[in-house]
Every structure is written in structure tokens, then in C-alpha cells.
Design a protein that fits this description.
The complex is a heterodimer of chains A (262) and B (289). Chain A is mainly α and 262 residues long. In chain A, 79% of the residues lie in helices and 0% in strands. In chain A, helix 1 packs across helix 11 and helix 3 packs across helix 10. The radius of gyration of chain A is 23 Å and the shape is globular. Chain B has 289 residues and is an all-alpha fold. Chain B contains 14 helices and 2 strands, in the order H-H-E-E-H-H-H-H-H-H-H-H-H-H-H-H. A two-stranded antiparallel ribbon of chain B has the order 1-2. The chains are: A mainly alpha (262), B mainly alpha (289). Chain A: Belongs to the binding-protein-dependent transport system permease family. CysTW subfamily. Chain A: It comes from Pararhizobium capsulatum DSM 1112. Chain A: It is a multi-pass membrane protein.
Chain lengths: 262, 289
């Protein structure tokens, strides 16, 4: 390695600092979830699994956890189904209002979630959809469409279009062409965006906050618990979520790599 | 045969479904929110109307202007801090790390926190900065202070730290992409011409990375401006942001028209920023061509 100038060394120093900054809080969360004390202070008070037992015995929290899973699964399925069709339509057709349509799909990704949540609440009230987990699923699926559309469109733009023509020339029906040519080439972007949708939906607060009724999701449960004060139980459930996220990430990276190699 | 295949009618029907979905469930809701912002409230009900009273109130009442200005200030500070932390990191990943495998692994490490719950990432700062928290107990046990301080949490500094922490990866992503796409030849050419590494950075690398700076800064600013969670968890009365005002109008204050007007303002701000960012980015590209 070439010798570095002082400002380059500075950049390296700041970078390592930022990397530490990114992980320090996560390490704290995990550490305090096993700490045998109600307060999150040093020195640590000893190892305990008490907080894990507490959340496994907390029916309300488990119910919220289950609700989050159900919402995330349905929202992801809807988002992928609609998003892939939308991406194909945007890739294949010219139609009036196409730019507006595309910008609208992508808007919720850069717009603070609270604005989308309020827009949806206003609308649902007008047409009489009651606040419920169903409303949350529809809201999440709509807000997360942009994730699927942008990923799949990027992938579609890289495909050589002659493949589709060749397939049609060889007598394949549009459905066959989709199943045997288009789908395999966009598969990894679909899997990737589905995993991302799932994670984002599982974690979503603003849209959920305005659309949910009596039944809540895990983030809303945690959020309202935190407004009253903190309990180490949250650290325990947080650690479980962090661990699950890491497993999902490793899984998706491995899956996508194998897909690319094959 | 060809012709019938190409005009397979089921196709158009299939594609009209996502169009209808987005129109009905996304574009119409934003439209309705904007229209409700012109309504009148007569407690506890709202009436369809077309008046600018809600906007007039927001711009004249210091209760609202203070919070809006404060939110702008915090979002700006967060963006600058995230840039100051994110740029060196992206630079380090692209130019200092020689091994592609290590570079990708470290880049993954930066992106992974985005996948870890956003709520939990905001919450950890509550356990670190709180009066009974990790930072205080460290300070007390090392003898730096005698008693736990309550100055770390529930203020604007805590807000800035938490938001920077949450949004730094959003800054690093576009920066990494643009820096990684700078052709090595350009840097070598600059060095061959006898330009030192600092001037190479300043005259070659930095200008070419401006697209990433703009993209990252826009994203960070827009998202931190409307952040919903950090103000509630670590903000305190001094850290009230636009999101809190919005939330109150739809909850306790029960003034949907006013809340919709505030949300419409946030929507407008983000749209303007996105527009400026696209323009700047496009101008940058023409420059390079």
C-alpha cells in the first residue's frame, strides 16, 4: 500500500470511526438484553435470560409480533405482484401520464412516511375503509411498490430485448415467454426486492400508525411502550429482530450470489 | 400469427391493473390530502371548503413557524454531519481498500444497519444517552463526573446524533456508487501530469462525485425533515419537529384540515428539493460529457 498523506489518514480514521459508530448501538442493545438489571448502565450486572422469558410470556407483544409477520407477508406478496406488472408495463409501453405514474410510485420512498400515512388516512376515511390490519396491508403494499418497481426496472433495462423477440419467433406464447425468458432473468431482482419489502414492512411505523385499528404491529407496540418508559424486554425482542435481520441478509446475499453464478 | 401474439389482449388488461391501483390508492390519496388542506374546521367536524386559512395560520402563528424553522435547521445540520461522516467512509472504501472482496464486505457492513429495524436504531440512543444510560454510567464510573447528567437526552443534540446515525448509510450508498464508477484512468492521468493526491482529489475526484453528494444530501434532508420516531423518543420539548405537529392535528387537536395543510407543505418541500436535485444532477452530467 502506498504511504498515505495526513488528510488521507484522516479520512481512514473518520471511516473507521463511522463504522464503529454504526455498530456500537447495536452491540449495546444485544449486551443489555442479557444484562441482569433493569437499568441500562455499566458495569454490567451479570448474565440473565430473564428478559427473553419476559417477552415470551408477554401475550400482547407476541400477538403484535404475529400481526407484523402477517402484515409483512401479505404486503410483500401484493407489492411484488403489482410491482412486477407495473415494471413490465413501464418497460414495454408508452402511455399518457407515464412519467407521473412512475414518479408517483417512487415518491413514497423519498417522502417522509408520515405524509403518505396521512394521505392514506384521509382517503380511507372518505371512502369508508375502517382502520384495521387490512388497511395497513394495502397501505404498506402501495407505499413499498417503488422498491419492487425500481429494482425490477433496473434489471429489465439490462436485458437484451432480442431474447423476447427470439422467443416469440420460435412460437412461444406471451405467457411462455414470460415464464421461460423474462421471469428467470428478473428473478434475482424480485427476490431481492421482496426481502427488502418484507423488512421495511415489518419495521414500518408512520403509515401503520395512521391506518391501524385496535390490533397493532410490533413496531407500534414497541413505540407506544417506549413513550411510557423503557424496559429491558424491548432489548430482548430487539436482539431477536437484529438476529433475524442478519440471517435474512446473509440468506439473501448467498441466494443472489448463487443465482448470479448459475 | 405474429400480430395476434403481439396484441394479445390479456396483456393490456393485465397492465391496467397496477395503473388503476396506483391511481386509486396513491395518487388520489395525495390529491385528497391536498384538498382537505383547504377545508374548514368547526370543532369537532370538518367541512369541504376552499379557503387558505389553514396555510395563513401556519405562516402567522409562531407556534408553527418556530417548529418549522427548527425542523429545517435540524435537517440541515443532520445532512451536513452525515455528509462529513459519509464522504470519508465512501472514499476510504473505494480508494484505500485494494481488495474487491474486502471492499464489498465492508460496504455490506455499512448497508446492513439499514435492514436492522429503524425503530430500534433510534431507540438504542435512548438507552445510551438517558440519565440511567450507558454514557452516564461510564462517565460516573471513570470519575469524569460525580453524578449522572440529564443533559444528553431530550434535546436537539440527541436528535441530531440519532438522525445522523439513522441516515448515514443513505448518504454512503450514492457516494460509494459514484466514486466506484470514476475511471481509474482519470486519476492516473492526473497523477501522471504531476498533480499531487490532494489536488487530484479536489480537481478530479470531488467534482465527479457531486452527483452522489446531491443524491445523498437530498435523501437525508427529506427523510430527516419528516422523521416521525426520533422526536418522540429522544427529542423532548425542545426537539419538537414538524412530524409531532402533524401527529397532534390528527390526534388530540383533531384538526385534520390543518394537519393536511402541514403535510401538504412537507410534500411540496420534498417535491421542490427532488426537482432541484434532478436538475443539478442533469446539469452535472452535461458538464462532464
Amino acid at each position: 500500500m502506498r504511504s498515505l498523506r495526513w488528510w488521507q489518514k484522516g479520512m481512514v480514521g473518520v471511516s473507521l470511526g463511522v463504522l464503529a459508530f454504526l455498530y456500537l448501538p447495536i452491540v449495546m442493545l444485544v449486551m443489555f438484553s442479557f444484562n441482569d438489571s433493569k437499568v441500562t448502565s455499566f458495569p454490567l450486572a451479570g448474565f440473565t435470560l430473564h428478559w427473553y422469558e419476559a417477552f415470551l410470556a408477554n401475550g400482547t407483544m407476541l400477538r403484535a409480533f404475529w400481526n407484523s409477520l402477517v402484515v409483512a407477508v401479505f404486503a410483500t406478496a401484493l407489492s411484488v405482484a403489482i410491482g412486477v406488472t407495473a415494471a413490465l408495463a413501464l418497460d414495454r409501453y408508452e402511455f399518457p401520464g407515464k412519467r407521473l405514474f412512475q414518479n408517483a410510485i417512487l415518491l413514497p420512498l423519498s417522502l417522509p412516511g408520515i405524509v403518505t400515512g396521512i394521505a392514506m388516512l384521509n382517503f380511507y376515511k372518505q371512502i369508508g375503509i375502517p382502520q384495521s390490519l387490512t388497511a395497513v396491508v394495502i397501505g404498506h403494499a402501495t407505499a413499498l411498490l417503488g422498491v419492487v418497481v425500481s429494482q425490477v426496472m433496473t434489471r429489465l433495462a439490462k436485458i437484451n430485448r432480442r431474447q423476447f423477440e427470439a422467443s416469440a419467433d420460435l412460437g412461444a406464447t406471451p405467457v411462455e415467454t414470460f415464464r421461460r425468458v423474462t421471469l428467470p432473468s428478473i428473478r434475482s431482482s424480485i427476490i431481492g426486492s421482496a426481502l427488502l419489502c418484507f423488512t421495511l414492512s415489518f419495521d414500518e411505523i408512520p403509515v401503520t400508525y395512521f391506518l391501524t385499528g385496535r390490533e397493532v404491529t410490533l413496531p407500534i407496540y414497541i413505540y407506544s411502550t417506549l413513550r411510557r418508559g423503557i424496559t429491558p424486554e424491548i432489548n430482548a425482542i430487539g436482539t431477536v429482530i437484529v438476529a433475524a435481520s442478519f440471517i435474512l441478509i446473509i440468506l439473501s446475499v448467498t441466494l443472489l450470489r448463487e443465482r448470479d453464478q448459475s | 400469427m405474429m400480430l395476434t401474439r403481439r396484441t394479445f389482449p390479456g396483456f393490456a388488461a393485465l397492465f391496467s391493473f397496477p395503473l388503476a391501483w396506483v391511481l386509486l390508492l396513491l395518487i388520489v390519496p395525495y390529491g385528497i390530502m391536498i384538498s382537505v388542506s383547504f377545508w374548514t374546521r368547526q370543532f369537532p367536524l370538518f367541512y369541504p371548503d376552499f379557503q387558505f386559512g389553514n396555510y395563513a395560520l401556519i405562516f402567522s402563528d409562531p407556534q408553527y413557524t418556530t417548529v418549522i424553522l427548527r425542523t429545517l435547521k435540524i435537517a440541515l445540520i443532520v445532512t451536513v454531519c452525515a455528509l462529513l461522516l459519509g464522504y470519508p467512509l465512501a472514499y476510504f472504501l473505494v480508494f484505500t481498500i485494494r481488495s474487491a472482496a474486502l471492499r464489498n464486505a465492508l460496504y455490506m457492513l455499512v448497508i446492513v444497519p439499514l435492514w436492522v429495524s429503524y425503530l430500534l436504531r433510534a431507540y438504542t440512543w435512548k438507552i445510551i444517552l438517558g440519565t440511567d444510560g450507558a454514557l452516564n454510567s461510564l462517565l460516573v464510573s471513570t470519575g469524569i463526573v460525580d453524578a449522572p447528567l440529564d443533559i444528553f437526552l431530550y434535546n436537539q443534540t440527541a436528535m441530531v446524533i440519532t438522525l445522523v446515525y439513522i441516515f448515514v448509510p443513505f448518504m454512503v450508498m450514492p457516494l460509494f456508487t459514484v466514486l466506484d464508477n470514476i475511471p481509474q484512468r482519470l486519476i492516473e492521468a492526473s497523477e501522471d501530469l504531476g498533480v499531487g493526491p490532494f489536488m487530484t482529489f479536489w480537481k478530479v475526484i470531488f467534482p465527479l462525485s457531486l452527483g452522489g453528494v446531491i443524491a445523498g444530501a437530498t435523501m437525508t434532508f427529506c427523510l430527516s425533515f419528516g422523521d416521525f420516531v426520533a422526536p418522540v423518543l429522544v427529542g423532548g420539548p425542545d426537539g419538537t419537529m414538524v412530524a409531532n405537529l402533524l401527529q397532534t392535528q390528527f390526534g388530540a387537536a383533531l384538526n385534520w384540515p390543518l394537519g393536511s395543510a402541514l403535510a401538504t407543505l412537507v410534500l411540496a418541500l420534498v417535491l421542490v428539493l427532488l426537482q432541484i436535485s434532478t436538475r443539478l444532477d442533469r446539469a452535472g452530467h452535461i458538464d462532464l460529457a
